[in-house]
Each structure stands twice: as C-alpha cells, then as structure tokens.
Amino acid sequence: MPDGREPTTVHVISAIDEVAADAWNACAGPDNPFCRHGFLSALEDSGSVGADAGWLPRHLVVRDEGGQLLACAPLYLKNNSYGEYVFDWGWAEAYERAGGHYYPKLISAIPFTPATGRRFLVRQDLPDAMRDELTDVLAQGMVKFAERLQVSSLHITFPTKAEWHRLGETGLLQRTGQQYHWQNRGYETFDDFLAELNSRKRKAIKKERAAAIGHGLDIRTLCGDEITETHWDAFFRFYQDTSDKKWGSSYLTREFFSLMSKRMGDHVVLVVVEDAGRPVAGALNLRGTDTLYGRNWGCEEDYKFLHFEACYYRAIDYAIEHGLKWVEAGAQGPHKVQRGYLPRLTYSAHWIADPGLRAAVKRFVEDEGRVIDHEMRMLMESSPFRRPD
C-alpha cells in the first residue's frame, strides 16, 4: 500500500472488465449508482461506449503490492464532445481556428450522465490520509497520461464539490454549472411538500397532477425484477424517439437497458405509463443511497402535463416513500423551479495543455461563473416555497 515512501504506480486499462466487479465497487461505494461496475460495464458491453461511439475507455487503477485494487477512476479518450453535458464546443472551435487540434482529449466522466458523483474512487475502508493520497495520485496520473498522449486537454466533469476544490488546489481550472434538484425536508407525504409552497404554486401543481391523471392512464413505478424485457422494449422506443428529436441520434443501445437492469437490480426505478394496457411513455431513474437520479424520458403521444407527472412528481413520491434526501432531475430546465426543483451548483475541472488556450478558457469560466451566480440568485427569488414570516 502507498505509505508516502514508495512510489505508487497508476495503470491504464482499456476495459472495465479487466477489474472484478466487487473490487471496483469496493472503491466506488454504494452512494452513486453510475460509478458502479454494473452501470459502466453495461455501457461498454452493449457497445454504447467504445471506439465506434467516440468514448474509448482508458480507466486508471492503482493496486497494492499484493494486487488488491486500492483506487480507480473512469477515464475516456474522446474524439468529439457528444454526450458530456459540460459544453466545450466553443473552446474546440476557437482552438481549431487558431490552428490547433482540440481532439482527441481525455475526460473523466460517466458517459451520457450529467449526475454529480465521485470521479476518484478510493476504497472506503482506508484511512483518510491514505484516501487523500490516492485521490492525488489518480489526479496526477490523469494529467501525466494526458501529457504522455499529447492531447489538448483533460476534463473532469460532475465531480463532488470536495474533489473540485482539491483539483483547483492542484492548478486545474474550475468551472461551475447549475442543475435543478428537489430536496426532501423530512416530508412524510406529497401534501407535506405542497404545504411549504405558496398558494398559487401549490394550486398549479395540484392542477397539473389532476390533469395528467385525468387522461385515464395507468401510471406505475417499478423496480428491479418488476421490470421485464417487454417494458424495456417499449421504453427503448420512447427513448429513441425523444433522442432523435432532440439530438439527432440515440447514444444508448437497446442491449444497454437489459444489461443495466440485470446488473443494477433495485438501483433501477422505471415509471411506466400505459393507456388501456398499451405502453405509451416511461421515465427512467436510478437510485443511490440518498438520491434518486432522473435519467431518460420518452412518450409516443401528447398527454398534457404527463411529463411533469412521470418525471418530477412521481420521483418526489418515490423519494418521500423511501426516505431519500434528493431528486436530481437531470440537465437544464428552469421550468423545474416552479415545481420545487431549485438551482444547485455542479462542478467541473479542466487541464489545458496550450498556455494560450488555457488563458482564454480561464477568462471564459470566470465570466461564466459570475453569470451563473447571478442567474441562480434570480431563480431563487422566484422559488415557489413560502417565505418565512
């Protein structure tokens, strides 16, 4: 084990299956489902991630002298910026215009998943000092690997706030973003949550829920073994249709959903909507220790307010019933504020090889951060929650 005297070697692997699932998960811990072996391996084994998809796995691992895995980190070599949700297209375009080559680049992230979680996965049973040391070893290993490959940049997206601060202390550029999350303040029922809203917003949500239910739809929340291949067949159709409309192509393959469901068990929470027995919509969530993460939604017909019911309100219902503290409803969407999902900062850190590009990006993220701070203050002023007397 690293003790501060002997050098620690970071190894690069080209597939997560080079590490046993239990060893990887001992580092990932139970909190965030996306960091776990089952989710990442489902992406790779289904072909959703790989060279053809533009996400080439180059994960980092650290082992002790006996071969036990001490730490690891998801890492990918990319030739585009699709599926990241921390947008750097402008940086790439500017650098290319200046004669540089922005791609390939390295990114430590969960593909197609804008959810905050640890990116430096260190065994939970190690002493704090050793955990800090191994975190630094992984971060330094990423930068050295980027230098060795002579890529333009390295990006760590949606890390925890603690990781973000630590990366800033090592010299990486710090960037912030925002999402909209719902917080469980000890509610026992959905009505307890509504009671904290001002009268106008409370009535609006009740009206939306009544309208969605008034379509005569059967809306159920399924978990684990309750979800069948028939459900996934239908959901994949919805997912493809929505993805094609928004982005022009679908990132995830049909096989991914089956593998994820099989390997992630009760982490998978699927809201299924049927009209007279016919599947018409679905909302996919994954459950962590204290958070429900909303991921994908699709609907093949237009039912007014159904999106809000299936994606936002049913997620709140589930969180309250199971004692979860947060619901993260994914990227974008200021309309979520009026439904109790308030703005919350997200984080990313960036290493840029070229000094000129680094200086330009530094100015950009500083200006952007001030704009985001202003937007968050403005959004909080329109919070639906009643102000204290």
Short summary of the structure?
This protein is an alpha+beta fold and 389 residues long. It has two domains: 11-178 and 344-380, 3-Layer(aba) Sandwich (Aminopeptidase), CATH 3.40.630; 185-324, Gcn5-related N-acetyltransferase (GNAT) (Aminopeptidase, 3-Layer(aba) Sandwich), CATH 3.40.630. It has helices at residues 21-28, 37-45, 89-97, 128-149, 161-169, 190-194, 199-213, 229-246, 254-264, 306-322, 355-381; strands spanning 11-13, 55-57, 59-63, 69-73, 76-78, 105-108, 121-122, 153-157, 173-183, 218-223, 268-275, 278-287, 291-299, 326-328, 342-352.
CATH homolog superfamily of the largest domain = Gcn5-related N-acetyltransferase (GNAT)
Describe the main β-sheet briefly: 11 strands, mixed
Give the overall silhouette: globular
Give the low-confidence spans.
Answer: none
Extended strand count: 15
Structural class per helix/strand content?
Answer: alpha+beta
CATH class of the largest domain: Alpha Beta
Please trace the helix and strand order, writing H or E for each element.
Answer: EHHEEEEHEEHEHEHHEHHEEEHEEH
At the fold tier of CATH, the topology name of the largest domain is Aminopeptidase
The CATH architecture designation of the largest domain is 3-Layer(aba) Sandwich
Our estimate of the beta-strand percent is 15-25%
Structurally, the number of domains stands at: 2
Question: Can you walk through the features of this model?
Answer:
The protein is α+β, with helices and mostly antiparallel strands. The protein folds into two domains: 11-178 and 344-380, Aminopeptidase (3-Layer(aba) Sandwich); 185-324, 3-Layer(aba) Sandwich (Aminopeptidase), CATH 3.40.630. It is 39% helix and 23% strand. The protein has helices spanning 21-28, 37-45, 89-97, 128-149, 161-169, 190-194, 199-213, 229-246, 254-264, 306-322, 355-381; strands at 11-13, 55-57, 59-63, 69-73, 76-78, 105-108, 121-122, 153-157, 173-183, 218-223, 268-275, 278-287, 291-299, 326-328, 342-352. The strands form two sheets. An eleven-stranded mixed sheet has the order 2-5-6-8-15-9-14-13-12-11-10, sandwiched between helices. Helix 2 (37-45) packs antiparallel against helix 9 (254-264) and helix 7 (199-213) crosses helix 10 (306-322). The longest helix is centred in the last third of the chain and has 27 residues, at 355-381.
